[in-house]
Amino acid sequence: MKTVRLSIVGFGAVGQGVARAILxxxxxxxxxxxxxxxxxxxxxxxxxxxPDGVDLKAAIxxxxxxxxxxxxxxxxxxxxxxxxxxxxxDATPTNIDDGEPGLTFMLEAFRHRRxxxxxxxxxxxxxxxxxxxxxxxxxxxxxxxxxxGGAMPILNLAHDALAGNRIMSIxxxxxxxxNYILSRxxxxxxxxxxxxxxxxxxxxxxxxxSYDVEGIDTACKLVILANSIFGMDVTYDDVDVTGxxxxxxxxxxxxxxxxxxxxxxxxxxxxxxxxxxxxxxxVPKNHPLAVSGTLNVALLxxxxxxxxxxxxxxxxxxxxxxAILSDIIAIGKKEF
Length: 336
Ligand SMILES: NC(=O)c1ccc[n+]([C@@H]2O[C@H](COP(=O)([O-])OP(=O)(O)OC[C@H]3O[C@@H](n4cnc5c(N)ncnc54)[C@H](OP(=O)(O)O)[C@@H]3O)[C@@H](O)[C@H]2O)c1
Known about the structure:
By secondary structure, the chain is of the alpha/beta class. It has helices spanning 13-24, 26-31, 56-66, 76-82, 102-111, 121-137, 155-161, 176-188, 192-201, 210-213, 216-230, 249-257, 317-335, and strands at residues 2-9, 34-43, 46-49, 87-90, 115-118, 142-143, 167-173, 240-241, 260-269, 275-284, 295-302, 307-313.
């Protein structure tokens, strides 16, 4: 049995989803000859550590009851640096001002020769090449399937399943909140403000929704696709971004009369007519990109396989943990 030693830094919806997935999939993983042992978990309050593995059920319970996993003097950075382990799972909040705290956590993990699996877009949207270079310099893997499209496999699809193809372009709906708002405005003729208010009550939109509705979240995901799949060297500032705040029920109804929907589309294209932009676009109602509700979708145009479309849940605790677990397993199969 290969034992893969992990830490989980950030223990909110995603970090706890990873812990639950590890508990649920113990037998499944044993069938693959892999055992995952979590040696440390950290949140803003501190950390819990265990040389033979942290009790994940107890950590989830403690987090729920007292708001923190902390039971030791370790800081999150101590966990990353001082505990001898293989993979740091970073599930800290996305921050596109300076990428912190995830940026420092990831760089320190690489410098201590630990692989990193993350769902945190911020550091990748700002410092992709710096992170990638540091990982390469230290001979470790950097995997981030969960940063784009949650459960929807897109990076690993492009890199592994479509290996040998040239990917010419990717177009997609990469933000479930915007898609939910536009879908309900279309279906019920409601205003942007009305649907946003309801989405906030349902917990689909944040109290400060600007990151989603201004297209910033979609732009960060495009940057990750552009760098990872197209080998570009771009950051968030290179993306041309328009959000959905100016879309009216009237414009949606006019589009509908022509058999069209309006969707917030992120598009990245390689080559002479290279493009990286986020913009509301008309999409025919029967087009593969015409998915509704909180779903995400991506259409990859390839030279050999032709168009490939993938859709799925772009967020959620266990859904995002699914992408993280697949990255952990990929490292486990290759490195151990
Ligand atoms: N939720 C989703 O469906 C989803 C989907 C795809 C990607 N993501 C991304 O995944 C990441 C995590 O999302 P989430 O929904 O799990 O967020 P969350 O519920 O807000 O959890 C974030 C966690 O990070 C911890 N944290 C914050 N600053 C820290 C620091 N300096 N040191 C250690 N821990 C720190 C927080 O600690 P406290 O608990 O003590 O506050 C919390 O446990 C984000 O980058 C998000 O964009 C989320």
